[in-house]
Amino acid sequence: MRIIVTGCRGQLGTELMSILEPRHDVVGVDLHNCDLTDRDAVLGTITTVEPDLILHGAAFTAVDRCEADPETAFRVNSLATRFIADGARRVGAHVVYVSTDYVFDGTKSGPYLEWDEPNPQSVYGRSKLGGERELDPSWTVARTSWVCSAHGANMVKTVLKVAAERETLSFVDDQVGHPTFAADLAAMLVRLGVARMPGVFHVTNAGAVSWYEFVREIMAAAGHDPDRVQPISTEAFAAARPADAPPMAPRPANSVLENFALRHSGMEPLRDFREPLAEVVAQIQTSR
User: Fold this and answer.
1) What does the H/E/C string look like for 226-264?
2) Backbone phi, psi, residue 235, to 5°
3) Would you give per-residue pLDDT tens digits along the chain (288 residues)?
């Protein structure tokens, strides 16, 4: 297949390129070779490559920066997706769009199903929902959460860095979700895209935890004492920020995504997050 991967230099894009390059004709797109907010550039790239599949993982994911710069958030996450959709229709490509748990408000008492009504509370969430709405019904939306890998910036790398500098770490215990590892996510996105599976899918690793519990698991996987991690509420964390700190985007208290559509479409769910966590921690420690 001929495939375009957007955001090819990010943590998800890196894993997608690694999976696809040995077996497909793949073109990686990122800011170095195509500005996705430039309609002419996007249409030119797509109509030149004429892909069978576009895996659209590029996004402005810095949620607090989105809050401070909503215009850029909507240009990158919503409008660029419109341009990609336009190009895909012209060449008959299937699109897989990577979305987020932030499209929900986090107030539901149980896990979110694919058919629950979105109600984003942040600029980031609204802009990603805007991207979802640019897609055709026959294409694929893959919502995920808490993405980590050995590449780029993410919670695992942050925790290991902070653990080397401080004796104690404080993380919120009232925000719950599914840690998801980019290699596992990438493999499922490829399966969904190659099969041209239509509709919305929640794609996360198994195992719901709070950020506090996740950080304890990271510490244990790295050989550190997890009791060095202390719980803190979101309210207390926000109150402790400096008065001149930039605005902080609201986080969903409940980010747990039920992978219902995936499981009932004949796809095996992703493994428990602790397995890829151990692999990623070992990879990070080996590379130091």
Assistant:
1) HHHEEEECHHHHHHCCCCCCCCCCCCCCEECECCHHHHC
2) -65, -45
3) 999 999 999 999 999 999 999 999 999 999 889 999 999 999 999 999 999 999 999 999 999 999 999 999 999 999 999 999 999 999 999 999 999 999 999 999 999 999 999 999 999 999 999 999 999 999 999 999 999 999 988 999 999 999 999 999 999 999 999 999 999 999 999 999 999 999 999 999 999 999 999 999 999 999 999 999 999 999 998 888 887 777 789 999 999 999 999 999 999 999 999 999 999 999 999 887
- The active-site residue, picked from 97, 102, 112, 124, is 124
Closest CA to 136 of 95, 107, 165: 95
3-class secondary structure, 127: helix
Q: What is the CATH number of domain 2-287?
A: 3.40.50.720
What is the residue extent of each domain of the chain?
2-287
Query: What are the DSSP calls for 132-186, one per residue?
Result: HTTS-TTSEEEEE-SEE-SSSS-HHHHHHHHHTT-S-EEEESS-EE--EEHHHHH
Q: Which two tokens stand for residue 154?
A: 């993410």
Catalytic: 124? yes
Question: Which residues make Cβ contacts (< 8 Å) with residue 114, sequence separation at least 6?
Answer: 143, 199, 200, 201, 202, 258, 260, 261
The type of residue at 172 is V
